[in-house]
Every structure is written in C-alpha cells, then in structure tokens.
Here is the input.
Amino acid sequence: MRDVAIIGVGVTKFGELWDKSFRALGIEAGMKAMEDANLSGSEVDGIFIGNMSAGRFINQQNIASLIVDYSGLASNNVPATRIEAGGASGAVAFRQAVMAVASGLNDVVLVGGAEKMTDLDDVSINSILDSTADAEWEAGMGVTFAGLHAMIAQRMIHDGTATREEIASFAVNSHFHGALNPNAQFRKAITLDTVLKSGPVASPLGMFDCAPITDGAASLVLCPLEDARKHTDSYVKVSAAEQASDSLGLFQRSDITSYGATVKAAEKAYRRAGITAADIDVAEVHDVYTVSGIMALQDLGFFKKGEAGKAVLEGRCQLGGDAVTVNTSGGLKARGHPIGATGVAQIVEVVEQLRGSADKRQVEGAKYGLAQSSGGTGSTVAVSILEAI
Amino acid sequence: MASVAREWREIPGRYNLIGTKCANCGKIFFPSRDFCPVCRRKSLGKMEKHSVCRTGEVFTYTVIYDAPDCNNRLKPYAVVMVRTDDGVMITGQLVDVDLESVAIGMRVRAVLRKLDADGASGVIHYGFKFVPED
Amino acid sequence: MEVGIVSYGAYVPRYRIKPEEIGRIWGVDGKAMGKGLMISQKSVPSPDEDVVTIATEAARHMMARVPQVDPADIGAIYVGSESHPYAVKPTSTIVAESIGATPAMTAADMEFACKAGTAGIQACMGLVGSGMVRYGVAIGADTSQGAPGDALEYSASAGGAAYLIGSEDVIARINRTLSFTTDTPDFWRREGQPYPLHGGRFTGEPAYFRHITSAAKMMFDAMGTSAADYKYAVFHQPNGKFPTRVAKQLGFSPEQIEYGLLTPQIGNTYSGAVPLGLANVLDHAEPGDRIFVTSYGSGAGSDAFDITVTDAIKGYQRGRAPVLEKILSSPVYVDYGTYAKYKGKIVMPE
Here is the structure.
C-alpha cells in the first residue's frame, strides 16, 4: 500500500445558489482543485463523486458521467464512480479515492462532492433527508430526520449527559467560525439565546440546531505521497481514511446517545495514523444537528461521555480555546450542508488548516486534523486523519 | 403514485406488530428479519413469526413541528421510541395525548391509525401509532 | 341453537365540539339548537381516524375480552357504515386483517344509513344459526358528515361498536329479531357527494317514528311482550329528542332508556349509534336482564331485537377492554377551526 497525499483542494461558495446548476457547481470546485494542484487535467486517471440524491433533487442519475463530460475529460474516457452513503457520501467517496491511489490502481484521482438542493421545494427536500433513516419503519411512521436527532437529544438530557444549553452551544461554536469563512452560507456569529429561542422544529431542537439547505460542491486531488512534490510544494498526507457502519434504524441500537460507527471508525483511524485523540489539533465534525456535533466530540474520544457539551458551552473548542478546535469552517450548521459535498468540504478545510492557508480561521501550528462525516443517524460514518508535511 | 405492493407487503408489521423470533436464541426482532444477527447461520430456517407486545414504555420522544405533508392536519405531534413489554424498541407517533404530558417512562399502547394516503384518489396507508395506555 | 352476543367492544374518538361553538360560526343560537336536539356535545374524529380505525379499535376491544376465542374461528365480518373510507374497497377486510381473522372467512361492507350495524348482526345470526360459521363479527361505525352550517352539523359524530356473534359462551341471547322496511326517502347521499341531504321534518313521523314503532310493535306481538317486560331499551338516536319521544310512545320509562342513550353526550354516531347504546347497556347488565333494541336506518327500515342477558356474563372478562364510561371519560374540546381542519373541511393542496 502506498501513502497518499492531497495535492489540491477546491470549494465553491456554499448557499442558496439560484443561478448555479448542479453541473456548474461540480465543475467549478473541480477546476479550482486542479488549478490548486497545478494540473492540466490529462493526468487524472480516476474520478470519485460523492452525491446523495441527484436522482431526487434534480432528477439526474448517472452523474459521474455528467461530471466527466463537463470536466472535459470524456475524451480521455476517465473512469468515474458516484458514491452514495447518505450524509457521508462525500467522505466515503474520498475514502474510495484514497484506496484507489494507495492500491496502485490509480495515480492521480479527482474527488468531487456536490449537491444541488434548492431546485426542489422544502417538503420534498425534507422527505429526501428523512429517507436516509429507515424509510419503512422511521420515516414511514411519520418520524422526520430532525425528529430522530431530537429524540437523541431528549434522551441525553434525560440521562444527564448534556443540557439543552450545552447542546445548543454547538451552533454558537459553528457560527463563530462560519463568520470567518468567506465561502460559508451564514457568515454571522450568534448567541446562545438565538439558538434557544429559534422556532421549534422537533423539540427540544429549534431552527438554529439544524444545518440549512445548501447548494455547493467541493473537490480534492490525490496522488501517491512520493509523487506529491512533483506537482506542488503545498500538500498534506492522508494518515487514515476509515469507515464503519451500524444499523439503518436508530431504534435497532442498544445506545442511541453514542454512534458506535463513529467510535469504531475513530479507533481504526487513530491506530492507522499511530496517534490518539489528544494529538488532533483541528477537527471537522458532522453537526447536521447540534446534538450530532456534541455526540461526535465524545465518540471521537476528545471528551468523555457527558463532558463535550460543557466544553463547547465554555468555548473551549473555538479558535483560541484550550481543547481541539472544532469546525473552523463553520461546520454543517454555518458553512452549509450540500449533502454530497459536505464530507469533501470537511477535508478541504482540514487541508487548509494543515497547509497554514486557513486565513482568519487558522489554528496555529496545526499538525494533525480529523474529519468525521455521518450518513443517516450514524449508520455510515467515515473518519479521516490528515497530517501536515 | 407509489406502488401499492410496497405498503401491502408490510401489512403484518404495520397493522399487528408482527415481527420475528429467533428459535435459536429467543431474541425478538421488529420489523421481521430473515435471520438472526446474533446467531446468523444457526438461525437459518428457525425464524418464527412473533406478535410483538402492543404495550410498552416511552424510551425517548420529541414533538415534531416541521411536519411532512401527511401530518399537516395533525401537527405539532409527538413521536416516540417505545420499549415494548417484551423488550422490542419501536418508533412511532404518539397521538390523542396532551403534548405537555409526554414523558420518558410513560405507558403507551399501539392502535391502528391512518399514516398517510396517496393523495385524494390513491390508497390509504394504515399502521400503528401509540396512544397513552388507559 | 342459542345464538347471541359472545363479546362486544366499543370506541369513540376523544375530541368533542359543543353546539354553541358550531352556532357561533354560523350565526345560530347553538345552545338553543343543542337543547332542542338534546345534544350537549358531539364526538369528532382525529385526522388520522376513520371508519377503519374506529371499527378496528372496537373489534380489538371485543376480541380482548374473549381470549379463549381464536380469531381464525371467525367466519364472517360485516362492517356497517355510511362513511366507509373507500367507495370501492372494503373496510371489513382491513378490520379482519387487524384482528387476525383472515383468510378463511367472508367479509363485506354494509350500508343502510344508520342501521347497517344492526343489519350486520342479523346477517351474522343467520350464518351462525345455520351452522355456516362458528363466529361472525358485526360492526357499526361511522365518521358521519354534516354539511357546514346544516342542522346535521350539530349532531353528526363518530364512533362505533363491534359484536361477536356465536352460539358458545353467549353473554346475551338474541331471542328474536325482525325488521320493518319500506322505500322512504327521508335522508340520502348521492355517489361522489361529500354531504348528505335530508327531508327536514319529513325525517320525523313518516320515517323515524313510523318505522321504529312498527318494528317495535311487531316484536311485542311476536314475543307477547310489552315495554314493562324489559329492563332496558335502546333506540336509534339521531338526537336525544327522537328516542326519548319514541320510547314514551311505546311505553318505556326514562330509566329504561338511560344507559342506551349516548347521543346527548357524543352526538349521532349513525351506524354506531344503536351498537354503542347497546354496548353501554351491556356494560351495566346482569344475568336475566331483558333488553329491547330497535335501530333505524333512513331510506328506510328498522331492525328490532329481543335480548336476554345470560349467566355467562358473570365469567365474561369485560375488564380486559375499557367500558364506555371509561372511553368517554377524558374528552378534549376543540374549537370550530380545529374541527373543520380535523374533518377535512378545509381545502388543502394535495
């Protein structure tokens, strides 16, 4: 197995991009990444695209071919594969690309993640989100995706492992950083009160506990670590790209206030990278709802169960805090959550941090960065660790 | 319009909480499984139909305000995860309840209600929801 | 062969609206309207309730009380209603599936305005009596419709009751049943129309009163009885006034009809009305009690029953399902807007 490097990153503006089509977004992110890696395009010998639901959002299947075509790579007949893993689609696509390069099957791989969500009405969008849970026995019973997370939050509060304020504070943390990210959907810091008083979605969660509906795309270029310097001086090493699964339905689990798949993927990732949670300087976690962010910090080993909420509420995960700095991009909550793009955008942010190019969001001297991405209610989780060179 | 077959084949579970029991280890599953995830091969051919207990206790809950279209006339409404008296966890709505009174540990009972309908002309989907136990 | 009621179960939705609240919207003195009809409130189904769910709940209560009866031994299920959720596709098959009675059985939906439930009881009696089936289930249930602002809106409500008819462990023997039927157009709903129409005062003397008194008198003649021979009586109850008056005409006292008269507190449950009234009587009945029952369905006909409660009611596990008093004990009052939303009277995008 070869070590793998990320030699280029690209990301579009995230938000309600009324004038941009799915294909335009995908190409924009891809071109930026190619430019960042100083490549012309002809070097690319494989493409992996993370996308959750173009079939339902824009009624377009077979999108890998679409991306190849509009990237101008159709004449090279580059093989392209679309990956779907709910909210973890982008992260799993990244992992497939890492495996392709590490195995020696591919030498220069483009990873894309894209979702065009706003071409559909809100009710239909929510129905698509709900379908990442068990369509027959959760969504089909009238339970929304937000409702499932709300039930996790309710149980945490009942068990005494988090307070409502602690859970809500995750959005404050994400917005604080989002304000510093020019590509974020929401560039405005908020107070705890804003979250607590936001309109109810599924009690105890309100509007500001939920990631927004977003259009956007992100892209990466990978190659063997040994070849990286041929292309650029600015690259990072992929120390681990792990993945784990759990039951599709939340109700099938013995514990709903921890995602076993996050715990398992993180264990494998730390082992492969040869480090522990304490070595991580900066982390991007899947805060599709505030409560998922709090859970992730515990499941990744940054805090013991019942302690993450307090740490976030105290601002310890913000830039300048004494704990791991979390979601410098603004996270899913403030940067936005174009589902298939999210996992890739997390990697883009970690790369920026490790290259020292994160501008106002820069965590000084960041050496190790981690990204955690979840599909469904933790039914597919990818955990990746990157290392500064 | 959705296929009627998809709902039709789930009728035993939707109406009567019919799940399966592994004759090898005795564990009960809902919805039905073709083999036991604990016993795996040993359970092949040994999964029996099992009627899950219709009463149980609320394990966790939420009140949904941002509702799918099928519940436009019912929102806000409560959703619960229920631990049935035979130990199975089931997700469903909790109706005919004062939303303020919903709590973890509350006793509930499964009844048959309308879940959804395929518009004004399509089929009506019936299935279980929970109500407070008498 | 002794044929009768082996078990029964009832269900009424939890929501209520008062006549004064309906009157408030339509500029009518609702209180006076309620007083005239002798209705203080009526039941309203939740948006997720219909005849299928009401009939199922009643049938499940019925089955819960006879754990010794294997649902597979039910050979027939008839659901009588004028508000079946489908114009074509039976309610009865869904109910049958919900109580585990399928597939070796027959089923059909019945419609005869407000007497389809008692017609089902008669059909089951025939099947059991002839030996064609071991048990038959007859259910009367409705989520009846009253056009907005119409007089019917003050009474049309929701509820139902289910009866297990058989010849073993009979808790109430049906001594005799007979019917009086004519073509009398007092009330109707055309195919595809959401609300029924009625003949106003024509629904009284030539319709309700003529048919009920005729059937009742035929029963008295057949059995050689009079009102004094019965402990209880149940009459169809489109409002509180009609059954009270018809009882008096036939010689029954207010005490005899007290338990069987639920319309004042739940409204007119149409096909559910007599079955629910009888269920409430059975909730209170003792061995030897004789019950006189006469339903009425517009269009028009009356089914009369002469029933005697048996000793078996002592061993009957009534407590395994809620009695009507319990079912009616926690009403939730709604305003007209909520009522209109629940009943689907507000047009929404599909």
User: Anything to note?
Assistant: The helical segments of chain B are 4-8, 11-16.
